[in-house]
Predict the structure.
Amino acid sequence: MERISREEALALFKSADLLDLGEKADRIRKALHPEEMVTFVVDRNINYTNVCINQCRFCAFYRDAESPDAYVLSKEELFKKIEETIAFEGTQILIQGGLHPDLGLDYYTALLKSIKARFEINVHGFSPPEVCYLAKKHNLTVRETIQILKDAGLDSIPGGGAEILSDRVRQVLSPKKIKSREWLRVMEEAHGLGMRTTATMMFGSVEAPEDIIEHLAAIRSLQDRTGGFTAFIPWSFQPGNTELSRDDVGLQGSIRPATAIDYLRVLTLSRLYLDNVQNVQASWVTQGLKLAQVALRFGANDFGSTMIEENVVRAAGVNYVVSKEDIIAAIKAAGFEAAQRNTYYSIIRKF
């Protein structure tokens, strides 16, 4: 299939029949993954703090430092969570948190070194906003900051903080957060240092179709240059308990949560447009198990993580809970072989 242009992608997004899109996306998935296997990773999402100075309007998780609900995990709590993850045959921890005004680079490097001294586990952590915050706080370049974290034990970087890579949208969603170019800069520098990362997109808030295409175009362009993204994960905004859900501040009007149809349309377009990203994840965390199964025939080839623990989406009032066995059963019921993978999409075992 020839690479589609931004203009073609926008036209498809706005007017193409969903089932036609799904069929095209499924053909691409089959071409990239002819073995008819769907993968997943066993990991835990550990939020080391919920204190954040960014105060994003779409986030129900953050707290001010003075809040009675504010916390910073102790090392003992963190180690216990990692031990539980390994007991579940986990191979990765996704560790990220808010931008805490009192935590500096020494905290992060000590944390990483203490984890690596005790456990054999991949640390997938500290999204671009955290990296940029540390760089500015310590008057370092982004590259220097990533190198310091890597030397301390950071293995890979998650795609958090991307939301929509359109600054007109970011000004509404998260005016205090890093701009699109800064998010992309972190990822490019990480790739240049030999680190793999993921890319994400949160849609269904205040963006227009043009903003979604702008986001996908930015990811594809960077991937052309570096090849460092392992996967793309689109997921829908969950408005519960957020400031954004209480205010009519949208660029396109009031907030209308994304439907299952909206999700599948974005997913298929992602698979069609991102011809240089090998893996696209289904998001059972926001969509539930059944729709994630459907997503496997609309371009997705990966079921994401078991998410032994997840806090951010849960804070918005969405709480799907599934086990590894549930994921394996769902994959098989959709007609695929299930396989556990690691962070880098190497197969650990098949089921």
User: Anything to note?
Assistant: The chain has a mean pLDDT of 89. The CA atoms of residues 208 and 252 lie 7 Å apart.
